[in-house]
C-alpha cells in the first residue's frame, strides 16, 4: 500500500541493491528516523524469495506468530495450560493484532521483544529456575533487539515496567536481585548487539555531535542528533520538526484498547477478581502485566500517540484476560451476553446493508463511491467514515462473509460449555479476518498505486514525477523500483535528509516542472485530488494526456501516447 507500507519495503530493497546496510534511503535521500532491523529482515527475505510484496510481509507475519506463541507459553508457565491457551487465543484472534500487522510496522516485533524481556525477568528471579543466568542473558538480548527495532522505546518500556515491579515487590534494592540479573554482563550484551550499527550510522552521517535543542527547516546536524534528540526527546515533547504526525486524543488512546482486544476484552473485568499478590507465579505475572500496562499508558498520556503505540500492552492484557476466562462467575457470563448482543446486532446490520445494495451498480473501482473525511484520518479506522451505502455494493462478498462471521459468533456465545463457546468465537474472528482481507483487495486501487504502475509498465519509457509527498505514492517506487522527481516534495519525512551532504537533488518546484513538461523527452506525473487542477494551471489542460485514473489518483504524461498504448479510459 501507499504510505509507510511501501516505504519500509522499498528501504529494504534499496539496502539490498546498494549494499549500504547502515543508512536507509528513500529516492536516494538519507532517511534517518528509524533503526534498521526491520529493513534488514525484509532485505534478507528478498534475498531468499526475491523482491516481491508478499516476501516483504514474511518477517512481520512470522513475528506475529511468534508473539502469539510466546504469549501462550508465558501464560502456560504462569497460570497453567488452559489459561495459557486462552491467552494465546486472545491475542491471535483479537482485532488489534490483525489490524496493525497489515502494514509493515515493527511494533509486533517490538511487542515480542518486550514480552520476552519481561518473561526472562521473572524466570531469572524465580527461585525454582535452574538456569537464571541464561534467562538474564535473554533479558539483555531482548532489550538489544528492541533497540534495533524502535530505538529507546525498546528498552524504556521493559525497564520501566520491571523497575515498578521490583519496587512493588521490594526487590529493587536487593543485592540478590542484581546478582541474578547480572547487569554488567547484560549491558555488555546490549552494547555488543546494538552499538555497532549506531556507531557506523554516526560515522557515515556526520557531523558526529550536536547538542542543539532547536529543530528547524534547513538545518542538518547529522545522524546522532536527529536520531536521538529530534526523534526521541523532541518528539516526546511534541517539538520535533517536521511535525509529520498526528496525535490521538488521550481518551480515545485509552478506550480503543478495548476495541483492539475485542472480542476478548469483554472478559477483562473477570481478571480483576484474581489475586495480584506476588506470592506465586500467577500473582507475579499479573502484577508485572499491570506494571507494563500502567507504565506504557501513562508514558503516552504525556506524549504524542498513535493507536498502535499501545501494542506492547496487548500480551499483558491477553495474559490477564486468559486467566480471567477460567472463571465462571457473574462477570464472565455478563461478558458472554454482551458478545451475543454485539454479534447479533452486527449480523443484522450487515444483512440489512446487503439487502439495500443488492441491485446497486458498481462502475469503476470503489473510490467512485467513497466520501472524503481528512479530519478523521489521524485514526487507524478513520477511513471507515469514507464508506457510503453505495460503497458497500463493491463489498458484497466480504460483507456477506462478515455477516456469516457475526452469525457464527452469536451462535457460539449461546453454547453452555465455555471451552466450545470460546472456540466458536475464535472461528468467527478467523472468518471475519478473511472477510477483511478480501475487502482490502477491493480497496487496492484506493490504498495503492499499483494499478497505475501496471499501466505505466505497458507505456513508452519516460521519467517519473511524483506530485508532492513521497509517501502518497510510495508504492510507485516499490513496483517500478525506480527513482523519481518530487514536485514540491521537500515535505515531512523527506525534509531533514534532503539537506545531508551529498543528498541527490530530486526536488523540483512548479517552474522546474513546467520546464520539464515542455521538453521533447517523455515524463509521467502521478497526482490526485486538487493536484489535477493545479497541474492544469501550470501546463494547461491540453498539456496533460491522461494515461489512467485509478483509486482517485491520476497518471498523466506530457506527450500523446501511441495508438498501441493501453486504453486511455479513466477506469480500469
From TrEMBL:
Keywords: Cell membrane, Glycosyltransferase, Membrane, Transferase, Transmembrane, Transmembrane helix. It is a multi-pass membrane protein. InterPro entries: LipidA_mod_glycosyltrf_83, RgtA/B/C-like. This is Polymyxin resistance protein ArnT. It comes from the Bacteria. The keyword Metal-binding does not apply. The lineage of its organism: Bacteria, Pseudomonadati, Acidobacteriota, Terriglobia, Terriglobales. GO terms for biological process: lipopolysaccharide biosynthetic process; response to iron(III) ion. Residues 34-198 form the Glycosyltransferase RgtA/B/C/D-like domain. It is found in: Cell membrane. GO terms for molecular function: pentosyltransferase activity. It comes from Acidisarcina polymorpha. The chain crosses the membrane at residues 60-79, 85-101, 137-168, 180-200, 251-272, 284-302, 308-326, 338-357, 393-415, 422-443. GO terms for cellular component: plasma membrane.
Amino acid at each position: 500500500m501507499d504510505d509507510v507500507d511501501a516505504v519500509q519495503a522499498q528501504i529494504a530493497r534499496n539496502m539490498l541493491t546498494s549494499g549500504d546496510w547502515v543508512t536507509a534511503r528513500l529516492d536516494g535521500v538519507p532517511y534517518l528516523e528509524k533503526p534498521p532491523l526491520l529493513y534488514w529482515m525484509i532485505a534478507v527475505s528478498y534475498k531468499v524469495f526475491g523482491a516481491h510484496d508478499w516476501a516483504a510481509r514474511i518477517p512481520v507475519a512470522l513475528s506475529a506468530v511468534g508473539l502469539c506463541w510466546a504469549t501462550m507459553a508465558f501464560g502456560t508457565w504462569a497460570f497453567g495450560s488452559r489459561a495459557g491457551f486462552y491467552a494465546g487465543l486472545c491475542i491471535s484472534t483479537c482485532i488489534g493484532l490483525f489490524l496493525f500487522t497489515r502494514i509493515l510496522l515493527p511494533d509486533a516485533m517490538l511487542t515480542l521483544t518486550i514480552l520476552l524481556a519481561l518473561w526472562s525477568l521473572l524466570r531469572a528471579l524465580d527461585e525454582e529456575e535452574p538456569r537464571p543466568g541464561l534467562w538474564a542473558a535473554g533479558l539483555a538480548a531482548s532489550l538489544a533487539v528492541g533497540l534495533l527495532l524502535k530505538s529507546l522505546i525498546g528498552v524504556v518500556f521493559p525497564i520501566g515496567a520491571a523497575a515498578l515491579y521490583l519496587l512493588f515487590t521490594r526487590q529493587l534494592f536487593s543485592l540478590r536481585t542484581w546478582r541474578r540479573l547480572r547487569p554488567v554482563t547484560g549491558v555488555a550484551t546490549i552494547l555488543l548487539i546494538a552499538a555497532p550499527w549506531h556507531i557506523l550510522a554516526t560515522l557515515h552521517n556526520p557531523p558526529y555531535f550536536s547538542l542543539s535543542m532547536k529543530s528547524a527547516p534547513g538545518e542538518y546536524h547529522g545522524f546522532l542528533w536527529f536520531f536521538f534528540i529530534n526523534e526521541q526527546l523532541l518528539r516526546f515533547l511534541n517539538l520535533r520538526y517536521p511535525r509529520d504526525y498526528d496525535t490521538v486524543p488521550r481518551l480515545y488512546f485509552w478506550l480503543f484498547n478495548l476495541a483492539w482486544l475485542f472480542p476478548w476484552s469483554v472478559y477483562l473485568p473477570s481478571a480483576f477478581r484474581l489475586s495480584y499478590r506476588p506470592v506465586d507465579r500467577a500473582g507475579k505475572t499479573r502484577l508485572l502485566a499491570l506494571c507494563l500496562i500502567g507504565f506504557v499508558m501513562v508514558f503516552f498520556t504525556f506524549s504524542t500517540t498513535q493507536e498502535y503505540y499501545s501494542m506492547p500492552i496487548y500480551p499483558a492484557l491477553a495474559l490477564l484476560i486468559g486467566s480471567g476466562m477460567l472463571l465462571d462467575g457473574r462477570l464472565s457470563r455478563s461478558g458472554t451476553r454482551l458478545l451475543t448482543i454485539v454479534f447479533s446486532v452486527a449480523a443484522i446490520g450487515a444483512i440489512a446493508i446487503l439487502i439495500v445494495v443488492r441491485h446497486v451498480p458498481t462502475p469503476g473501482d470503489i473510490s467512485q463511491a467513497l466520501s472524503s473525511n481528512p479530519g478523521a484520518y489521524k485514526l487507524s479506522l478513520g477511513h471507515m467514515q469514507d464508506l457510503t451505502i453505495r460503497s458497500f455494493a463493491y463489498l458484497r462478498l466480504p460483507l456477506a462473509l462478515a455477516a456469516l462471521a457475526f452469525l457464527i459468533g452469536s451462535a457460539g456465545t449461546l453454547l453452555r460449555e465455555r471451552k466450545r463457546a470460546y472456540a466458536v468465537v475464535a472461528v468467527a474472528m478467523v472468518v471475519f479476518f478473511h472477510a477483511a482481507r478480501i475487502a482490502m483487495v477491493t480497496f487496492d486501487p484506493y490504498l495503492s498505486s499499483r494499478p497505475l504502475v501496471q499501466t505505466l509498465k505497458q507505456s513508452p519509457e519516460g521519467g517519473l514525477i511524483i506530485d508532492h509527498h513521497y509517501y502518497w505514492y510510495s508504492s510507485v517506487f516499490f513496483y517500478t523500483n525506480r527513482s523519481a522527481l518530487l514536485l514540491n516534495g521537500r515535505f515531512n519525512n523527506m525534509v531533514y535528509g534532503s539537506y545531508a551532504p551529498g543528498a541527490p537533488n530530486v526536488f523540483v518546484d512548479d517552474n522546474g516542472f513546467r520546464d520539464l513538461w515542455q521538453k521533447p523527452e517523455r515524463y509521467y506525473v502521478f497526482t490526485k485530488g486538487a493536484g489535477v487542477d493545479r497541474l492544469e494551471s501550470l501546463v494547461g489542460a491540453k498539456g496533460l494526456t491522461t494515461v489512467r485514473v485509478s483509486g482517485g489518483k491520476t497518471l498523466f504524461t506530457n506527450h500523446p501516447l501511441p495508438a498501441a498504448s493501453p486504453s486511455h479510459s479513466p477506469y480500469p
